[in-house]
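Support case: pyridoxal-5'-phosphate complex. Customer-provided input:
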Amino acid sequence: MNRVYNFSAGPSMLPESVLKRAADEMLNYQGSGQSVMEMSHRSKVYEKIIGECKALLREVMNIPDNYEVLLLHGGASTQFAMVPLNLAVKSGKGDYIVTGQFSKKAYQEGKKLIEAKEVLSSADQNFTCIPELDSSKFTKDADFLHICMNNTIYGSKYVELPETGDVPLVADVSSCILSEPIDVSKFGLLYAGVQKNMAPAGMAVAIVRKDLIGEPREGTPTMLTYKIHAENDSMYNTPPAYTIYMCKLVLEWLKNEVGGLEEIKKVNEYKAGLLYDFIDNSKLFSNPVVKKYRSIMNVPFVTGSDELDKKFVNEAEAAGLVNIKGHRSVGGMRASIYNAMPVAGVEALIKFMGEFEKQNA
Ligand SMILES: *Cc1c(COP(=O)(O)O)cnc(C)c1O
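Agent response - structure generated as follows:
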């Protein structure tokens, strides 16, 4: 059977060599006589896996020593609650910049728990850009300012960071982590659901500056407390053991086969460049995002006709280009081209778009 090119926003493609390695090791992991799925998370052999996963993430992302790497259940959405519960402990205030659906969800969750404020938004530009980062709008004594670095649904991303002074900057990097180098020291906290660019679903990674890990707000559940997970090396309870193993394999691929984040950035910019160039020169397809803010991971596009969009999605699927339908809230199409999407997949999509345009324009 041929493998398809999967343009899903997540869960998404994994590198083929990673899947093959996991298959090879499925029944008997390195002579242990068992699958990683079956082994005790307290065993020596598993301790090595989780240790290597964290060490590799530190190495690949160049994470400074004063940051903790936490592997957590509950995906990115649970971080919408954990961030305010653990960080809003001085003034109890949190600022949010709303640039799409996930940052809005984060803000709405914050509102339930703390004194949360939406300080900037690009809603009135239909989320086609990042708003001007006017820091006079920010709350001086906020305990954090939250952004979503890459907007998975609208296909926009930050090209510069807001100036927050001493206020810790928190970023949801679910759909751009590991896609290019990032200066971790600019942030108080970074988090990501792993199912876009790191691993299969089932986990979030939080990279937290150590001085921000303290007693959480009163009443915070144990499992939502960063301090508990930090003190227990992400093993307070049974961790998402197999996802961590897969994450380790993806990080090994990134380090050894790709050559690290500088290299993957070149590939990602090349892939995105091919697709945006094609769309910008097309008479049928268009992308609404202000050029400066275009994502290199998620590329939404439309024909301008709902009927043609639907036809495109169906015919693309039949041609092995799957999950290209836009998010249910915005319609149209969206090609998510994360790290594991090969250049050949983007080329196949462009070829298909060209043929579709000829037949339907
Ligand atoms: C997918 C995504 C989420 C939600 O992730 P879950 O792991 O499903 O909770 C949050 N933020 C961003 C930016 C995403 O892309």
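The two ends are 33 Å apart (CA to CA).

Case will auto-close in a few days if no follow-up is received.
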